[in-house]
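TICKET: design request
STATUS: open
ATTACHED STRUCTURE:
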């Protein structure tokens, strides 16, 4: 995946970053039952350290049956991965370490006052934009559009595509995955869209032309400030093909 790490499953749970045994088994080419056995062996040998770092839960397997699975902290993963050898295993150890580090940085950024202020400003910009798009939809319908309701999505997608390199899917709030600089650039872009919509309607432009102008101005703005990667979505995506199977969760 260009400019992104492979799809490693890492998510936040009660302020702690975790991965799970299904993802580890797949990435390291291990049978899941053997990974479970290795985790239980760690817990049995040192419950004082094992239990806080491994939590047993379950998931729905391909037969729609509930099967055991472990969630684990970064420490738990590191201890478990010690037993995995070979060049490929070593590469995955480095990739997991990088993934955990990037996610930890993202979580720290979300505690900074500048990030909180940026998030608050972004909400105001987004609200003004959605109000403008709401008026635009009625405007477009008045000009014969039968798909005006899709313009909320069209403007949002055009903005994200112009500014960011992102995965096709991501969990939770996309804005919570952005750093402070990305939040501020997004707010500027949404203000830009709002202005273009209001100005275009005021001039009586055809609704499709207004969208084209907005898209071009977004691309020009992105070219001036730079396109940046949103790393977190790639790290937090569920296992490919397993979105319905992973039900985490305790």
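STATUS: resolved
RESOLUTION: sequence designed for all positions
ATTACHED SEQUENCE:
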């Amino acid at each position: 995946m260009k400019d992104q790490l492979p799809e490693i499953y890492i998510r936040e749970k009660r302020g702690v970053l975790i991965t799970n045994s299904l993802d580890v088994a797949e990435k390291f080419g291990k049978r899941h039952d053997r990974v479970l056995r290795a985790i239980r062996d760690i817990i049995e040998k040192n419950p004082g350290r094992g239990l806080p770092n491994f939590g047993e839960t379950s998931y729905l397997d391909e037969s729609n049956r509930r099967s055991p699975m472990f969630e684990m902290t970064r420490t738990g993963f590191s201890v478990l991965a010690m037993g995995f050898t070979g060049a490929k295993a070593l590469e995955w150890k480095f990739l997991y370490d990088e993934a955990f580090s990037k996610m930890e940085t993202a979580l720290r950024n979300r505690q900074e006052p500048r990030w909180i202020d940026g998030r608050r400003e972004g909400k105001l910009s987004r609200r003004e934009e959605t109000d403008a798009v709401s008026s635009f939809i009625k405007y477009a319908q008045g000009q014969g559009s039968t798909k005006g309701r899709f313009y909320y999505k069209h403007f949002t997608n055009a903005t994200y595509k112009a500014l960011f390199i992102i995965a096709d899917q991501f969990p939770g709030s996309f804005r919570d995955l952005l750093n402070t600089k990305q939040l501020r650039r997004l707010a500027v872009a949404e203000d830009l869209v709002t202005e273009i919509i209001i100005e275009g309607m005021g001039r009586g432009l055809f609704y499709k032309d207004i969208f084209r102008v907005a898209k071009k101005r977004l691309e020009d703005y992105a070219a001036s400030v730079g396109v940046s990667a949103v790393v977190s979505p790639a790290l937090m995506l569920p296992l490919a093909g397993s979105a319905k199977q992973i039900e985490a969760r305790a």
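CLOSING REMARK: The CA atoms of residues 23 and 239 lie 6 Å apart. The first strand starts at residue 11 and ends at 13.
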